[in-house]
Design goal:
Layout (H helix, E strand, L loop, with lengths): L1 H22 L6 E2 L2 H13 L8 H10 L19 E2 L7 H16 L5 H12 L15 H10 L3 E2 L7 E3 L5 H4 L5 H5 L4 H14 L1 E5 L3 H7 L5 E6 L6 E10 L2 E8 L4 E4 L14 E9 L2
Parallel strand pairs: 1-2
Antiparallel strand pairs: 3-10, 4-5, 5-10, 6-7, 6-10, 7-8, 8-9
Helix pairs in contact: 2-4, 3-4, 4-5
């Protein structure tokens, strides 16, 4: 009996050690400026007093602290080796959602150091939390949701109340010239194409804009939402965080048209107008 118990302890120790190793980030393999480290540690210290808040509320508080931060696109493109980019000075819609979520999770973990934040960001941004060159990044947000659900970071269960999309996802491999790394390294296209095939085979659940009432019944403050696309080959057009005011929902997001992080003046439903290329919403509910 003692021998079995000892073996169990050894196995548990090995598992925990492997998790710790996976969570570590070598800052020499990251791209950031000293101000990014300063911003991260300032946010972690300031919001440490709110660590007991539900993560949905914490994400909103942290997200609002970035209001007016400039919008910048394609900030993650840095070559085939895919160093971890940490930029808290400016955002696109996805890096805003990722960074805010990573900061909130680090606060909930009661950590205030930059390395812990970087580890959370890497875990969120990459397939199974492992950064291994360009194809390891979760390039499509529908897969981002599925993989982060697998990691226990978000829940997509609420989307089961919506409809199934069997859309073919293939935009990246059919437009490689739009992506600097693929343009320089066409040998990677096959790997991306296989990921797209796997993603298309799974499909995804979402709330179509024809069923706004169902969407409203299922939305909650602090949800990370993805606006699904009617464009061929693309799953998602835009990403943001839901803010609730009274009975209505708005979007806290890094806006390309507004050129900064802002809270939408219009309702979330205004992003789903008939003429819009957004045809629905996927909900990723942060959990901790």
């Amino acid at each position: 009996m003692k021998r079995k118990f000892g073996i169990l302890i050894l196995i548990l120790s090995m598992i925990l050690t492997s998790i710790d190793v996976l969570a570590q980030v070598n800052l020499e393999e990251c791209i950031f400026q000293p101000i990014d480290k300063q911003i991260a540690e300032n946010k972690l210290n300031v919001f440490s007093a709110d660590a007991s808040l539900p993560i949905s509320d914490l994400i909103i508080k942290i997200g609002l602290s970035f209001l007016e931060a400039p919008y910048v696109g394609a900030s993650l493109e840095n070559g085939i080796d895919e160093k971890l980019v940490i930029n808290l000075r400016q955002f696109d819609c996805t890096t805003f959602a990722e960074s805010t979520l990573a900061l909130a999770r680090t606060v909930k973990l009661k950590k205030t150091d930059f390395e812990s934040f970087a580890a959370e960001l890497q875990k969120i941004r990459y397939r199974d939390g492992i950064r291994n060159k360009y194809p390891s990044r979760l390039h499509y947000f529908s897969e981002w949701i599925q993989n982060n659900e697998k990691k226990g970071i978000v829940s997509g269960t609420v989307n089961q109340n919506g409809a199934k999309s069997d859309k073919v996802i293939n935009y990246i491999c059919t437009h490689p010239s739009d992506y600097p790394v693929l343009k320089e390294h066409p040998e990677l296209i096959a790997a991306i194409a296989q990921q797209e095939k796997d993603l298309s085979g799974k499909g995804f659940m979402y709330f179509p804009k024809s069923d706004i009432s169902s969407l409203y019944r299922n939305l909650k403050q602090g949800d990370i939402v993805a606006l699904t696309s009617s464009i061929d080959g693309i799953d998602v057009n835009h990403v943001g965080i839901i803010m609730k005011k009274g009975t209505e929902f708005y979007l806290l997001h890094a806006s390309s048209s507004g050129k900064k992080v802002l809270v939408s003046e219009s309702l979330i439903t205004d992003f789903l107008k008939p003429a819009s290329k957004n045809n629905g919403i996927i909900i990723a509910r942060p959990i901790f």
